Amino acid sequence: MEPIITVSGLTKTYASGHQALKQVDLTIRRGEIFALLGPNGAGKTTLISIICGIVRPSTGRIVADGHDIAREYRPARTKIGLVPQELTTDAFETVIATVTFSRGLFGKPANPALIEKILRDLSLWDKKDAKIMTLSGGMKRRVMIAKALSHEPSILFLDEPTAGVDVELRRDMWEMVRKLRETGVTIILTTHYIEEAEEMADRVGVIRKGEIILVEDKAALMQKLGKKQLTLHLQAPLDAVPAGLSDYALELAADGHELVYSFDAQAAETGIAPLLRRLSAEGVDFTDLNTRQSSLEEIFVSLVKDRP
């Protein structure tokens, strides 16, 4: 798939000496939803700010939709929409006025029909004449997205798009992001909500201490790194895992009423059949069993927790 953003050899060291980014190389594909995950202070916002031309890199090159960010700043910036984490809107302006003004900032001619479509798509049309200060937090975030879309960018950055938003509105936002992707907009989102990436992303990148430690198709990542767990619901609770089962990756759960076995679903031998035979030999009876695959959150934690 054709790249729309190419980041090469990117570093950022601040005057204090803090190195926020270390030799970042990253390619974003046209038309995808890319989730950038990382703990606080990992460098997510710094990376986005540099790509958007807000922060200058120490070294490196960025090309956005065919334009070098440094040499062709204006045409590159017109290709990008940014929805920052902070809700910074003109509180006393109306919704339609602030979105229309944002389009003008990029030198785009007035287009009332387009502004109406954006507001309708974001369920803001009935609020078009409302002052932003009167809106709920979720509606204000929609206004931020409308402002970012007003100049018709081909790339949209969403920095923690659902921070502080309730679950119902979060799902509405997910649906809205999918619809944007269907119109051809490439979307890069940072999020602390792992389920957000699991729900929406085509690919996932993980950044830690200024370094990209992994970029992978979401499905392939979960298949490659995701463990499965077999949970056995015991007929009688156990105080400890029997010594005769110590060579299996077993843990007790639910106050000893469940025995959990972790295994690699991709392995030729999962070990389940011999485990069940061993349980029988040890006199451990169970009433039911079920399996589940690791979530993206568990995979993410395993990737970052043991690194120096």
TrEMBL record:
Gene3D superfamilies in the cross-refs: P-loop containing nucleotide triphosphate hydrolases
Instruction: List the InterPro entries.
Output: AAA+_ATPase, ABC_transporter-like_ATP-bd, ABC_transporter-like_CS, ABC_transporter_ATP-binding, P-loop_NTPase
Which keywords describe this protein according to UniProt? Answer: ATP-binding, Nucleotide-binding, Transport
Using the record's annotation, list all stretches that form the ABC transporter domain: 5-234
Q: Which Pfam families match?
A: ABC_tran (PF00005)
Provide any one GO MF term from the record.
ATP hydrolysis activity
SMART domains, per database record: AAA
Q: Which PANTHER family match?
A: ABC TRANSPORTER ATP-BINDING PROTEIN
* Protein name according to UniProt: Multidrug ABC transporter ATP-binding protein
Name the species this protein comes from: Caulobacter flavus
The upper taxonomy is: Bacteria, Pseudomonadati, Pseudomonadota, Alphaproteobacteria, Caulobacterales
